[in-house]
Design goal:
14 helices; single chain; mainly alpha; elongated; two-stranded antiparallel ribbon; 2% strand
Length: 387
């Protein structure tokens, strides 16, 4: 295969034009900075050729990475750690790319599905019934009788025609639950704390009690400003109290609009998993302490595992979007996912079946514990910082 014109021997120099490192005419690239050893001036054709070559090379790496991760559990990690790195995409950047693109597509899919549900008329209500507001049922202020409101809401559920999407089912169930909650015969009135009671508590207990008071007050007095609420409750108009009331009021508003919570969390999930992987890798490092595997190699293994999960989620999302079914998700979580993890552990760490099964079970238990704990902290922190 002939070389591109710029790489021909006649255009090579004895010094790198980028870092000025001495070179031989036999050197195709600079051994110091990697730049092409060529004195030929750039032409449009040269630029196009190099761009196309780099693009094809990058695509080949992506394809090899995807197929290797999907069909050969643990192989990509094994070869990458042995030094065959030019063949595959960088595991950290590739994971971020795959996960971010997935959540962008998921948001588009959710928004498109919701828009179609309401545009095609499959979800219809009478003018006197609860109305649809931004995809969420809101209670009509024209209906004063609570029992009548419940009957009307249940009638909406019973008379809907056509197949209901998951979104519609969630909306209806949420609306009925909200109405039944607000329509209870016995209503327990919230006991608000005075400023003196809050001051007598420990900092943490006082902080939680104060947020709870403000949350409840805003739920029943949405139009009240922070200053009006504090005055009505008899609390001091300090900057900390005003700040806490505003936070609690936003939490209260968010509770009535759950899709806003989804919008807050989804963009942050890739970063959450990116920082979750190092903690999981620390556990792998302890679990396989006797194996000759470094902490960074454990982390590469975990990033490739997470990448496999997201590549599989692309298939699940495509099935859900195109066919409105979720058979693949059951197959993945019940069979393919566990089998893939077992095979990846066997190949990469090279232990026997019995040890691998024991560590497989341990990893699953610890993973669920770590994920549940860190997810709770992530949700609270994301919501708090976003408000």
């Amino acid at each position: 295969m002939s070389l591109p014109v710029r790489q021909l021997l006649q255009y090579r120099g004895q010094q790198c034009l980028n870092c000025e490192t001495p070179l031989d005419v036999s050197d195709r690239y600079c051994h110091q900075c990697g730049q092409l050893n060529s004195k030929k001036r750039l032409s449009l054709w040269d630029f196009f050729n190099e761009f196309l070559a780099n693009l094809i090379s990058y695509d080949n790496r992506i394809w090899r990475t995807i197929t290797g991760i999907l069909f050969y559990p643990g192989k990509v990690t094994q070869e990458f750690c042995k030094g065959k790195r030019i063949r595959y995409a960088n595991p950290f950047r590739f994971f971020l790319t795959v996960s971010i693109v997935f959540f962008l597509l998921l948001q588009v899919s959710i928004n498109t599905d919701n828009a179609q549900d309401f545009a095609n008329g499959s979800l219809t209500v009478d003018p006197g019934d609860p109305t649809v507001d931004a995809g969420i049922f809101s209670i009509s202020s024209d209906i004063k009788d609570k029992k009548e409101l419940i009957k009307k809401m249940q009638a909406v559920e019973d008379t809907l025609t056509g197949d209901l999407s998951n979104f519609q089912k969630i909306v209806i169930q949420q609306a009925i639950a909200e109405i039944e909650k607000d329509s209870s015969i016995v209503i327990e009135e919230h006991q608000y704390n005075t400023q003196q009671q809050l001051d007598s508590m420990s900092y943490l207990r006082g902080y939680v009690s104060q947020l709870d008071d403000y949350y409840e007050y805003h739920k029943h007095n949405e139009d009240a400003t922070a200053a009006q609420a504090l005055t009505a409750l008899g609390h001091d108009l300090t900057s900390s109290n005003l700040f806490r009331y505003r936070k609690a009021s936003k939490f209260s508003a968010l509770a009535k609009q759950p899709y806003e919570l989804v919008a807050i969390l989804l963009p942050k999930v890739p970063l959450f998993l990116f920082f979750f992987a190092p903690f999981l890798s620390l556990f792998f490092w302890l679990l396989y302490a006797r194996r000759d595997v470094t902490y960074m190699e454990h982390m590469i293994f975990n990033f490739h595992l997470l990448t496999f999960v997201f590549i599989s989620l692309y298939v699940i999302l495509a099935e859900w979007t195109l066919f409105q079914t979720d058979y693949t998700s059951f197959l993945f979580f019940l069979l393919l996912g566990p089998l893939y993890l077992y095979k990846a552990l066997r190949r990469f760490y090279g232990q026997g079946r019995f040890k691998t099964i024991l560590k497989f079970l341990t990893i699953n238990f610890v993973f669920l514990m770590l994920l549940s704990t860190s997810s709770g902290l992530f949700i609270v922190a994301s919501v708090f910082l976003s408000l």
